[in-house]
Specification:
Blueprint: H1 17-34, E1 37-38, E2 44-46, H2 47-53, H3 59-63, E3 66-69, E4 75-78, H4 83-92, E5 102-111, E6 123-132, H5 137-153, E7 160-165, H6 169-183, H7 192-200, H8 211-217, H9 223-226, H10 229-244, E8 250-251, E9 263-270, E10 279-285, H11 289-292, E11 300-306, H12 307-316, E12 329-334, H13 338-350, E13 355-357, H14 364-373, E14 378-383, H15 384-388, E15 391-396, E16 402-406, H16 410-421
Parallel strand pairs: 1-5, 7-8, 12-13, 12-14
Antiparallel strand pairs: 2-4, 3-4, 5-6, 6-11, 7-9, 9-10, 10-11, 14-15, 15-16
Helix pairs in contact: 1-5, 5-10
The structure holds one RNA strand.
RNA sequence: GUGGAUGUAGCUCAGUUGGUCAGAGCACCAGAUUGUGGCUCUGGGGGUCGUGGGUUCGAGUCCCAUCAUCCACCCCA
């Protein structure tokens, strides 16, 4: 146990960090272009925030939260998602007083007590954006575009965008009843899960994968046909905006998001190669979330992208990804101790060169092997003979050529050679 | 939370119906070249066979439990 990370968690090892940095750089760049600023929110919040914000009947809240009591007796919860926290921060810092919309993004770990599976972890990471203070359909389109623009900038194509409108509280509750009415006599034909959903959240019956359930709901009314005028117009405007941008999407009237706060626009982006976890991005509008947690009725829209899943999708797409840059120089020694070599290594570093050396008293041969394995282009050989002559031998590992350089001019010489390289 | 598969060196895997079964390749270290890498050859270190019980004269090899991973469901990123 001591030597194993807890279930559903994992180390991100040095070899994979370049890919994470690649992801984060592209995310920052996309957000800069779209005008979203970074916000850093706490890793845990008052449990109440998620109960109210995400919704008590959602699976996330009902069975997946990491909740604990701190020494002051407070009930706290490791954040299972970011939107509720950002809404809280918006309220707490009175951002309704700033120029609207307020557009922010975040990245970081989220925690859900799920059963782990490929592309699903108990501690996973999300990159998300939120925009508060506007109901403008063009903003919905911008948010969708940001997600697509970013994912494409990573090199992902073959993405599928699913789009739907889940309406507002008024038309949704009206629809909920007409759906219940339509299914009234058929509840027994549904799977056990859907039997429960019939009572608690009948909309979810629509995207049940069970074939029998799908057959039963085939003739059921669709929310898209029962939206109120406001929601219908909004949805039409969002689609028109996306059409004008030339974005391809699938209208999926059965797309129902699992969090209570969603209203109107709901969307999801899928990528191939991830098995059952094909959803890499989920988002939508949440026009009453801020009001739900006790603030003014301020609309918002956002999305969250699962970093692990995107990285898996990139690997599946054969997009090799980034590699760590090799150091510039390896200082090898012969008849000189590591302690004696270190000052010379430091000189190189002070001159801005990434310099490595051996700390295991390896033979010269082994040191060259090491330098080769690390992909280092230049080796500086410090031997007794060189030091006596006030020189070092510089070897170019690519050509095999070597040259004597005076110790005083070493940094300048190497800097020059490295500059030629690129 | 439900169902199924898997778990042998750092990695990928062999290991017959339980009796030299603790192995191979790659990786790592060293030598062949008393101060020089990438190829080749030789040698070496490393595993309580996930863990804990049980059956047996004897168990990676059978049984049970447990943990973990993977797949599907649930749900979601």
């Amino acid at each position: 146990m001591l030597t194993k990370a807890p279930r559903g968690t994992k180390d991100i090892l040095p070899a994979e960090v370049p890919q994470w940095r690649f992801f984060e750089e592209k995310a920052r760049e996309a957000c800069r272009l779209f005008g979203y600023s970074e916000i850093r929110i706490p890793m845990f919040e008052h449990t109440e925030l998620f109960l109210r914000g995400v919704g008590e009947v959602t699976d996330i809240v009902a069975k997946e939260m990491y909740t604990f009591t701190d020494k002051g007796g407070r009930s706290l919860t490791l954040r299972p998602e970011g939107t509720a926290s950002v809404a809280r921060a918006y309220l707490e810092h009175k951002m309704q007083g700033e120029a609207q919309p307020v557009k922010v993004f975040y990245t970081g770990p989220m925690f859900r007590y799920d059963r782990p599976q490929a592309g699903r972890y108990r501690q996973f990471h999300q990159f998300g954006v939120e925009a508060f203070g506007s109901q403008e359909p063009a903003l919905d389109a911008e948010v969708v575009m940001l997600a697509l623009f970013f994912l494409q900038s990573l090199g992902l194509d073959k993405l599928t965008l699913h789009l739907n409108s889940v309406g507002c509280p008024e038309c949704r509750s009206r629809y909920r009843e007409s759906l219940r009415a339509a299914l009234r006599g058929k509840v027994k034909e549904l799977c056990p899960d859907c039997g429960e959903r019939y009572e608690k959240n009948p909309l979810r019956i629509l995207d049940c994968k069970n074939e029998r359930c799908q057959a039963v709901t085939k003739e059921a009314p669709l929310l898209a046909d029962e939206l109120c005028n406001g929601c219908r117009e909004h949805f039409a405007a969002v689609r028109a905006a996306l059409d004008a941008l030339g974005v391809a999407y699938v209208l999926n009237p059965r797309l129902v998001r699992g969090l209570d706060y969603y209203t109107k626009t709901a969307f999801e982006i899928m990528a191939p190669g991830l098995g059952a976890q094909s959803s890499i991005c989920g988002g939508g509008r949440y026009d009453h979330l801020v009001a739900t947690i006790g603030g003014p009725d301020i609309p918002g829209i956002g999305f969250a992208i699962g970093i692990e899943r995107v990285l898996l999708a990139l690997a599946a797409a054969g997009s090799g990804g980034a590699e760590a840059a090799a150091p510039d120089v390896f200082v090898a020694t012969a008849g000189v101790t590591p302690a004696e070599a270190l000052p010379y290594v430091m000189e190189l570093r002070k001159a801005g060169l990434a310099a490595e050396m051996d700390f295991l008293n390896r033979s010269l041969k082994a040191q060259l092997k090491l330098a080769d394995k690390k992909g280092i282009r230049y080796v500086v050989l410090l031997g007794e003979a060189e030091l006596q002559a006030g020189q070092a031998t510089v070897k170019d590992m690519q050509s095999g050529m070597q040259e004597a350089v005076s110790l005083g001019g070493l940094c300048a010489y190497l800097a020059e050679r490295l500059k030629e390289e690129n």
